[in-house]
Amino acid sequence: MNIHFECQRFKPLNSHHLSLSEVESDLVATNLYLERAGKPIAPVVGEFHFSRCPQECWEDEIRKMKAGGVTVISTYLFWILHEEREGEFNFASDRDIRKFLSLCEKNEMLVLLRIGPWCHGEVVYGGFPEFIQERQDKRTSSPEYLEKVRNLYRAYYEQVKDFFYRMAAKWQPERGSSAHVRPLSRATLGTEHAASSGGQPLLHQQRKNRQGNRCRYP
Q: Among 48, 163, 191, 214, which one is least packed by beta carbons within 10 Å?
């Protein structure tokens, strides 16, 4: 069988199709595919909410996902679990995001970290703790509400700051790690854009909040 391709009909490759990066990165979205370190990739993302699983099972679940072909784990940080009472942050036991990320690093699994603040995750109040849920200005551009969010993001940043993505070609192992690439603990824009009371101004403000807490998007 002979197969003929009409090459003149192929789209020209545009390596700057989406210019969303805020830092130098080897993750590139072309108009045809994604690239990492100059090579086309096809990420396979699987959802695993670490805080809903006993931590002694985390590594086994990570390994099973990797064996099944998953290359990126997507997970939530639910506000209601990490700040049930205002100002009292909890990252212990099954809420230990640092331990989860370190296990992903050990198993060379990338992570897409979804930090909300409001979450589509089948969790009560969209993950809001009661002291936020009872506010009339939640999910708006209210300065008072957004200050609560900033405090949350500061706490998240302190937990995950050692795991932000480094370029595969330039990253040097740290802390005695032999892994070549660290987890992609990237803070996504999440689902806050759906807030009917906030719209685009709220999305823009949430992005500024994350920038203010030194979160950057590769």
A: 214
